Prior knowledge:
The complex is a heterodimer of chains A (about 500) and B (about 260).
Chain A: H1 2-13, E1 19-22, E2 30-32, E3 35-39, H2 48-64, H3 76-97, H4 100-106, H5 119-131, H6 140-149, E4 150-153, E5 156-159, H7 164-180, H8 216-220, E6 231-232, E7 238-246, E8 251-262, E9 266-267, E10 287-294, E11 299-300, H9 302-313, E12 323-329, E13 333-340, H10 356-373, E14 377-385, E15 391-397, H11 405-412, H12 422-434, E16 440-447, H13 459-475, E17 478-484, H14 490-497, E18 502-504
Parallel strand pairs in A: 1-3, 8-15, 13-14, 13-16, 16-17, 17-18
Antiparallel strand pairs in A: 2-3, 4-5, 6-9, 7-8, 10-12, 11-12, 14-15
Helix pairs in contact in A: 1-2, 2-3, 3-5, 3-7, 5-6, 6-7, 12-13
Chain B: E1 2-4, H1 18-27, E2 32-35, H2 42-53, E3 57-61, H3 68-72, E4 73-78, E5 81-86, H4 88-95, E6 98-102, H5 109-115, E7 124-127, E8 132-135, E9 141-146, H6 156-159, E10 163-166, H7 172-183, H8 187-201, H9 214-225, H10 230-242, H11 246-259
Parallel strand pairs in B: 2-9, 2-10, 3-6, 6-9
Antiparallel strand pairs in B: 1-3, 4-5, 7-8
Helix pairs in contact in B: 7-8, 7-9, 8-9, 8-11, 9-10, 10-11
Amino acid sequence: MRTLISPYLRTLWNLVPPIHVESDELARVFISPHGLHFPKVAPDGLEASWFLAASAHVGAHLNYSKHQFVGADLRPVTQALVGLLEDARVEWLACQELPGLRRLWGRFFAIPRTDVPTFEALMQRLAWVLLEPCNEDPHPWVNKGRMMFFEHEGGVPRLRLEDPEEIRIVASRLGNDIGQMRLQFNARQYRVEPSYRDDNSHLWVPDEKKADVVHELEASRNGNTSGSEQKTAASVAEAFRYPEWDRYISRVRSDWVTVLDRIPEAKAGLAEGRRVLAWRERARTEQRRRVSRQWEGDEFDLDAVIRAEVLAKIGENPDARVYQRRRREREAEVTLFLLDASASTGGQVGNRGVTGLELSQAAVISRARGLERLDSKYAIHSFSSDGRQAVYYERLKDFHKRMDADGWGRLMGVRSQWSTRFGAAMRHATQLVLKQRGARRRVVLFTDGQPHDVDIYDSRYLVEDARQAVLEARQRGVSIQCVCVDRLAMAGLRRVFGAANVEGL
Amino acid sequence: METNIRKAEPYYQAIGEECLLFEAAYTQRLPLLLKGPTGCGKTRFIEHMAWRLKRPLVTVACNDDTTASDLTGRWLLESGETRWQDGPLTRAVREGAICYLDELVEARSDTTVVIHPLTDTRRVLPLDKRNEILQAHPDFLLVASYNPNAHKPLKPSTRQRFCALEFEYPSPDIESAIVAHESGVERGMAERLVALAARTRHLRGHGLEEGASTRMLIYAGQLIANGVSAQLACRIAVAAPLSDDPDVMGTLVATVEASF
Lengths: 505, 260
């Protein structure tokens, strides 16, 4: 859902707030100093447009709700009404800019029932007429609310409530009427309706205001993306099961390792910020080939001209394809760069003053640039493992995506942690690269050394599994190469990948 | 390729002093590079300037199959004889036209080498296949366009031979006026379209290489002026052409729906 919410807020108002998907069931979306909090699934089986409605609503708050109310001396009924009026106000302002939002939000209003005289029902009916002034409601209280909210100029409704203080006054007057109607209000069970609206807790000054809470949201308002570390949300991990070669039984253990595949969050501000080492890319030169007997071309194909002349002289129909042209031949190649992001890559390599991961990143960047120049398809993924149940596999840049700011943010945001289970990661990478179309497919692994994982005590076990994974990939037509950032580890890697397929940096 | 001297003035709304600068560069016959995102009015600008200066305009749209011979010319075989056929660039150099190489960077690298001698004091076009060095007509001017957001960069040895005029999408006011004029929609609708384009431009670098261009808005406006609903028009003229990625498409369609 993040892939929907985050770009939607960006297009609507250039907002880039941190977005958190909560695993617990959320009654309502909420805004905290740390960002926006959404549930994993829409309530009551509502479809994706619920997420659009919810994100447009909180976006409207971020854009137009600049005031925090003091709630201590207000009755719960008044507080609920302040929330309702503020919701209506920000939605009205948003609809002035983006009229289509009224249609989007309108879908989530239940048709108001006029026979149930509860406070909650009246609230919903008021919200309904405030969203769309053409909506009619017979109830005098609802109409009073509407009259206080809008003023009419030549038949066109205009917003009357501009000021937070006015909102508070109107809310308390409407609240008094509710009291006089003897309608009950259960503040504990109250939920803001319709369900796409957030709980409005952010409208109130917190009881104990903590000064040290960094207001991440402030920085995210109106596209203030530079400087602070903005994040583009991560996707939820998908689990894949892969076999593993067990050298003790000389057999493959099927469905043995779990690879958790996801797109990580992108951290902005990191993009190319770290040291990038110059690293020469041995870009494959294009092959130039002469193509003869063409209808059109740069030069005559002398043989064809002579043949055509001869045919013309003897009275036969000459072949008019008398040109030749040079064509650049480019094999459609698909490359997957796979970064080892285990804890060991966080250490310095030799005396070069950089970590293994930084070397890998620099090497990947320069190779990716080379491929971009050739317009060749590539992806950048990383992995680290924590036992056979959790091989974390992160897709930093996918084949079909351009390397944009998010891609750079993801690549530069990789952290060194956990262990190195080569085999599973390579099997998953092989699987992914095989789904791509191309004449040649290859996986290039960037690592600092030997495979290792916390649940394996035999140093040869994972090495032999990795060898097995390389062999399986080759059998399926995927070439696997290894770039080693630490020269000391090269000998070991040659045994896994074959001497010709390992190069040092 | 086309050559013409326009009789009617091609509509162009100046954003800054680009017209004066172009005239100054033309007086000195300095080659010009028009830099800017796609669909921001580069081609229309050159058409307008050719009309203003009363020079014929030869336009070549370069693509990755455009070779040097496509610009300079080639030998043809005709009834047992070979005959030389001038390419569009050669013709412009001979006749003293303005030659406009649209998206020069897309052409193969050998084409950029061909134009080098034309862009310095020599002002010559070597036709090696004909064994001829063609001196440019005094009125000849070379203009190339280039989109800096595209992936291919222009080589320094080429770019340093040009003066460059930078183009950006115009300010919302001017852009609305252009959309209203070109498509025939009312000013209010044009402003809506321009606001939508500004929103899509937020996605630049975050899923989109470029946001919606002025040209796209004009297309959408033309559809609207023909009775298509604004939502549908923007869907087919803005959202769908911008991206193939389903996530990005979903966002764009939702934004279009929110806008109207």
